[in-house]
Amino acid sequence: MDIYLLEAIINGVLLGGVLALLALGLNLIFGVIDVVWICYADIVMCGMYAIFFLYAQYHLPLPLAFLIAIIGVAGLGVLVHLLIIAPVLNSAPINQLLATGGLLFFLQSFATLLFGTDFRNIGVRLPVLEIATMYVSFARLIAFAVALIGAIALYVFLKRTYIGTAIRAIAQDREIVGLMGVDQRRVYLVVSAIGGALAGLAACLLALQYDVHPYIGNTFGPVIFMICVLGGLGNMIGGFIAAFVISQIIAIGGYYSSTELSYVFAFTFFIVLMFIRPRGLFAP
Amino acid sequence: MNLNHIIRAVGLAALVALPFAAPPYILHLVIQILIWAFIYTAWSLMGRFGFVSFGHGAFLGVGAYVPALLWNYYGVTPWIGIPLSVMAAAALAIVVGYPCFRRRVLGHYFALVTLALSQVVLLSLVAARDITGGSLGFTPKAVGHSWYALQFPEKGYFYVIAVVLWLAGLLVWRMIDRGIGREALEAISEDEDAASSIGIDVMRQKMRVTIISAALTAVGGAIYGQYVMYLNPETVSGIAVSLQIVFAAIAGGVYSLLGPSVGSLLTLSLTEGLRVWFGTDYIGAANTIYGILLVLCIIFMPQGIVGSLQGMRRRSTIAKPLVTANRQSATREPSSAAP
């Protein structure tokens, strides 16, 4: 096999890790609260700015900056739920979509207002590994490993803890869990915080690879929705697998043509697949 | 009723007097408001029946780029180019809409499939940068005042075109609102199976309104392109403009004739006013406030501005969501009579 194609495939797998992490967060929120956060990628953008300022501007140690960013974005997730989602919880689904869409406008413009449209890099240069004459970005390798660890940690949390069980119960039947003594509002807040924390974790991993700018959310936001829908909205394992399918299409498509065209392939693949399996790849 | 007639007469008189009285900047703003009002009205043809499309950026992009490309590369007049672009947009609507409706891709899924469609058009335009200029944008060849090229440096001509276009859009809205199709579509948006069981041709009704909506949006995109004489993939296609369309239409209210137009008037004058107010020192400040207002509007005025005002006038206490997929819409009287 062509060595460059293999390299593209490997980088695709590594890219899939971060996308899978983001898809997990979005799916968790959708599965439990039944709301699509269309601004999810822009919440990641906030985390990336936090890391940039803490590390590059105020010279905090990188791990500390990451930790603060994750906690901060988790807090942001709770705020989003309290201020925007809670008031529209009983509205039509489209209103909920639009409320978070308004937040998308706000976050992008507010970031532009505060930080300008400059591209900023935290300036951490990680080495590029050479494995059997193939070049693999170390930052992507870390991102992939951390994303996997994050996904497993989430799985264990959902399976083994009381609140995790309550979260899964709500995702299955929202009506009945109240009778079982589960405080729905508390579960929603916990889920929003976890969703935010996952976005914060993704922000750490993305900050190592990409420059941050106010519109970075537009570049991978639509891809994340596509992944979630492809896996079946709310289906976390489906979304996790779909992330790797899509990232392969993007990586291999990018190898044979241009980056934009590879996204065109991915979106077209998504549209066609929705016609074949309207409830997602892994719907029963 | 009398009051409505007076309001309408005053409004029409203002529209006629405007090009003679207003400075060019105001005229420019009004032309944009009218063109976008037409596009938002076209969107609301689908949106009011619960088919929330985030794909109108795709139709807009096709509508704007096809005539401009044909004109620059082959010298084809927009009089042929615009019908071709409308056909292309309609074809796109059929290719995506038909399987969507056949396979029952609804709700969130429909919104996100159409979102993907608008991204496909955006990214294709960027990828074909040798032809379209990519993200740098595309400028149709200017030939000065020409009916053949549909280019008019004087704003008055485009003002008339925009007014005619807008009125035509309202006419189509009203025809659909008054036609038998509306009842059928409302039945469909509530329960497809029940609708088809009483003999409604579900596919036909859905496709009809989708094709009309896509075609009108393409016309709007083409006229917008002819007017501003500069196209950028980001401003005529993709997620941003699709969201802009959905927001403005819903902020105004999709259940009333003038709702989307009010949405256009308010959002454009708001963004323009904020832009002038803040100048170039605070880039993003205008849209920051715009974003906050959008969220507040959706939380506190879920029926849109016109809808909320009508609600107050009728002292109706029934809360209706923006776009219903539930049972309240059947009992609604034709809403176009109110403003």
Question: How is this structure best described in words?
Answer:
The complex is a heterodimer of chains A (284) and B (339). Chain A has 284 residues and is mainly α. Chain A has one domain. Helices cover 74% and strands 3% of the residues of chain A. Chain A has ten helices and two strands, in the order ααααββαααααα. Chain A has helices at residues 3-33, 40-57, 62-85, 93-115, 138-160, 162-172, 184-207, 216-231, 236-256, 259-276; strands at residues 128-131, 134-137. In chain A, strands 1-2 form a two-stranded antiparallel sheet. The longest helix of chain A is centred in the N-terminal third of the chain and has 31 residues, at 3-33. The mean pLDDT of chain A is 87. By secondary structure, chain B is mostly helical. Chain B has a domain at 22-237. Helices cover 72% and strands 0% of the residues of chain B. Chain B contains 15 helices and no strands. The radius of gyration of chain B is 20 Å and the shape is globular. The termini of chain B are close together. The model of chain B is unreliable at 315-319 and 324-339 (pLDDT under 50). Classes of the chains: A mainly alpha (284), B mainly alpha (339).
Strand percentage of chain B, roughly?
under 5%
- CA-based shape of chain A: globular
Distance between the termini of chain A: 36 Å
Annotation, overall tally of beta strands of chain A: 2
Largest interface: A-B, 51 and 52 residues
- The tally of helices of chain B reads 15
> What is the global morphology of chain B?
globular
Helix fraction bin of chain A: over 70%
Major sheet of chain A: 2 strands, antiparallel
Structural class of chain A: mainly alpha
Q: Regions of chain B with pLDDT < 50 over 5+ consecutive residues?
A: 315-319, 324-339
**Main sheet attributes: strand count, strand direction, barrel closure of chain B:** none
Mean pLDDT of chain A: 87
What's the gyration radius of chain A in Å? 19 Å
Which oligomeric state applies?
Answer: heterodimer
**Termini distance of chain B?**
10 Å
Question: What is the overall number of helices of chain A?
Answer: 10
